[in-house]
Structure formats: structure tokens, C-alpha cells
Design a protein that fits this description.
Largest sheet: 7 strands, mixed
Structural class: alpha+beta
Shape: elongated
Low-confidence stretches: none
Order of helices and strands: EEEEHEEEHEHHEEH
Number of strands: 10
Strand content: 25-35%
Radius of gyration: 20 Å
Distance between the termini: 52 Å
Mean pLDDT: 92
Number of helices: 5
Helix content: 25-40%
């Protein structure tokens, strides 16, 4: 019988978005070896008594001070040489938040916690560069078939903010006229009798995403596709 010695970890790829800015990812500077002093995504070993979801939430909170109600499982990374200490398999998760809603507070294994533009990342520990790349690809795909981006907008927003969000998340230009026509055709946006007070030119109407209507339509087979 072959005796196995494999440890299990979890990692959290947390993306941030602010209006009129690029997508950022939350990183921590490692306090301990290996890769002491280098940047990495938050994460760590799973305790015997906790689930994967409990572990990733705990590690994220301990190392960054950030709490997210929902992180989606991304992928399992299990290359035999991904950790110089021993054989380690990691289950990675990802999520989206607004950075301005959180105060970063590094602790335990993390010396610092900081947001980095996904196009200007530092050298990363372990295989975390690849994990982030996989998460970016998943994010760009998912925003085209599920309205996950609305949680990054204010509760009431001008349509231009929604357009800018999708341009940023997809990393490419969009046909704004067709995008507006299609998005409004879903019936998921409530146009409000309010005007935007920011920006140049004529004030634009504000909108609100109707999540209750979305989940009701989804049960009936509605497909969100951009």
C-alpha cells in the first residue's frame, strides 16, 4: 500500500472594482517562509474541524480583515511541485467586492495587505500568478451569462456606470448602443425618476437592478446573456 502525505489549503482571489478604475486583486505580503516578504493571494491550510468554505473565509479575514458573504469555488490546483515544503493541493475561490467598503488589516501570516491592478502585478509566490490568471478568465466569462457585476455598482447608478463596469470586466470595448438595448430588453433594470448629480453634460436618469425579478425569471428558465 502506498502511503500518501498530502496537505490541503485554500486560496482566495478577491477582485475589486471602483467606478472609473481598473480591476484590482487583493494580495498579502508573506510574513513567513517560504517566499517570506513576497506577495501572494490570501490563503492557508485547512483545519481538520472546518469545511473548505469556513477555511477560506477564516484565512481571508485573518490575513486581510476582509469578510465576503460569498466566494465561488474556482479550481483545484495540485501540481506536485507547487509548494517547496511538501505536497500541497489547493482549492481556490474567487469573489468580487468594492474596495472602498473595507478597511484592510493584515495579521497572522500576512505582513501587509494591498490592492494591485491586475495589469501591474508584482512577482508572486507559489503558483499564484497562474491562479489569478485562471480567475480572471472565469470572471470575464461569467459576467457574460450571470449579472454578478451589479453588486459592484451603487444601489442607484447611471447607465454609463454599468457600461464602464462591463468594459472594465471584459477588458475590451463594447458596442454601447447594442449593449444598452439588450440590457434594457431583459427587464431587470428599474429606471428611476432621479437624475445623476455627477459628471459633465446633461444629467442622466438613474437605474436600479431588480434582483428579485431576476431570480424569479431565472426559475422560469430565463437566460442572461451579453
Amino acid at each position: 500500500m502506498i502511503k500518501q502525505s498530502i496537505k490541503l489549503t485554500v486560496d482566495a482571489v478577491v477582485f475589486g472594482y471602483e467606478s472609473d478604475s481598473k480591476i484590482s486583486v487583493l494580495l498579502v505580503k508573506r510574513r513567513i517562509a517560504p517566499y517570506k516578504g513576497e506577495w501572494a493571494i490570501p490563503g492557508g491550510f485547512v483545519k481538520t474541524s472546518e469545511s473548505l468554505e469556513e477555511a477560506v473565509q477564516r484565512e481571508l479575514k485573518e490575513e486581510t480583515g476582509v469578510s465576503i458573504s460569498y466566494l465561488e469555488q474556482l479550481y483545484t490546483f495540485g501540481e506536485s511541485d507547487r509548494d517547496p515544503r511538501e505536497r500541497v493541493v489547493s482549492v481556490a475561490y474567487y469573489g468580487l467586492i468594492k474596495p472602498q467598503d473595507f478597511d484592510l488589516n493584515a495579521s497572522t501570516d500576512a505582513e501587509e495587505a494591498e490592492w494591485f491592478d491586475i495589469d501591474e502585478l508584482p512577482e508572486l509566490a507559489f503558483d499564484h500568478k497562474r491562479i489569478i490568471e485562471v480567475a480572471i478568465d472565469r470572471l470575464k466569462g461569467k459576467v457574460t451569462y450571470e449579472p454578478i457585476g451589479f453588486e459592484l455598482l451603487d444601489r442607484e447608478f447611471p447607465f454609463s456606470d454599468l457600461e464602464n463596469l462591463y468594459v472594465t470586466l471584459l477588458g475590451r470595448p463594447i458596442d454601447r448602443r447594442n449593449f444598452r438595448k439588450k440590457m434594457l430588453s431583459f427587464g431587470l433594470l428599474d429606471e428611476l425618476d432621479k437624475k445623476s448629480s455627477t459628471g459633465r453634460g446633461r444629467p442622466a436618469n438613474l437605474f436600479r437592478f431588480n434582483s428579485e425579478r431576476y431570480f424569479s425569471l431565472k426559475k422560469e428558465g430565463f437566460v442572461f446573456e451579453i
